[in-house]
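User:
I would dearly like some help making sense of a protein record. Take your time, and here it is.
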Amino acid sequence: MIIATTLLETAHGTFSVSTHEDGTGQRCLSMSHGDLSDAGTAVRLHSSCIFGEALMATDCDCGPQLHTTMQEITKRGAGAIVYLFQEGRGAGLDLKIRGMETQRVRGVNSYEAYASLGLGRDMRDYSVAGTALADLGMAEQVTLISNNPLKRQALEELGYQVESQIALSYEVSKHAYEYLLMKQVEGDHTVDFGKIKFVG
């Protein structure tokens, strides 16, 4: 169910922004552009990252991926981003910060830090995304903008057919290299390092 909606002018074009709620009280936000009913429409399931998106952290690529996805959607003429309030792969902000401190002190990666705190590698629940996509009238056949195999699996479990999965070209700080390598090696992400420019 759509709770509220408005139009938002951004640096990457005009988006319709809505909040959604499912039958269990879970909420998410969507950003959509153009007609979403055509087969192959672009979609991204994006988890919130206050450090990478608002505080300009250099050790992740969440901000660059979000902004590049917005650019890609406006270039294509249609698409949607479902923005999920799932900090730290679903661990929540407090545990994410504890994990970050464990990484800093022990010199381990985020998967290892989470394990030491008794957390799973990825605790995200994508079910509310199904509500948002249905509210938006998303086509059953989609193009997924992501390098995460779990997001493809989530869309398929929600009843969508992923016609193709694309990796974007974007710039990110050189400090994010180890993080992206970890996602590729340990998380089976299809990170295309040929499309990523490391700067700074």
Notes: The chain is about 35% helix and 30% strand. Residues 2-86+124-168 form a domain with the Rossmann fold fold (CATH 3.40.50.10990).
